[in-house]
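Handout, page 2. Input:
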Amino acid sequence: MIQLAVSYKRHRFPPQIIAHAVWLYYRFPLSLRLVEEVLLERGITVSYETIRRWGIKFGPNYARRLRRKQPSRTDVWHLDEMVITITGRKCWLWRAVDQDGYVLDEIVQNRRNTKAAKRLLMRLLKKQGMAPRRMITGKLRSYGAAKRQIMPTLEHRSHKGLNNRAENSHLPLRKRERIKQGSRRPPTLRRALLSSQKSLRPTSHQPLSKCHPPPSSRCDSAMEHRDDCDCLKQAVEANSTSPAFM
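Output:
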């Protein structure tokens, strides 16, 4: 499959700044305003709305290029599901990862039954093009029923302790849900899923979500953010030169 080059036409900022802003937003659990402040501290004045549009436009393309991995018959599929809430409605996120932790596929469904597990397996076979060596799942019996209908000869291990690879892949999404206070719309969930991939996965970095409140006016937001950064830098320098730190 030939991938088209990323086009940066009609963009005022160079590609390096755009890529760095998108990387900051998806790599660390930072809000758009915090990414705006990080860039402002480096002398780059860009609004949080522009960063949001960059993430929507360039984020999926970056992730597809980083996640390219050729399937193999020696792969091991780890399948698991987690409950999520979208606009107050309970849904299930079905996810499949390989033995290296790369996300193979994920799908949001309303049910947690054999039909939903069968749909996930069909999508995996269509996308990977071949069956794996082994499939490891939790204790949900729907996986075994779906496997007997689609791949009856495939080795299947059902044990909670063996499926830690798939369960750990949910942690970045859970962490981002707590910071973003849930998913209110499907587009928001798609961007959260994008950031939870192994290639763009957040780390244990804790965001400073309450250090700088959002400004009341958009006109002077850049000036207020710059003043906040200057005050913070002066406070750090003053503390470092005080006798208590000698």
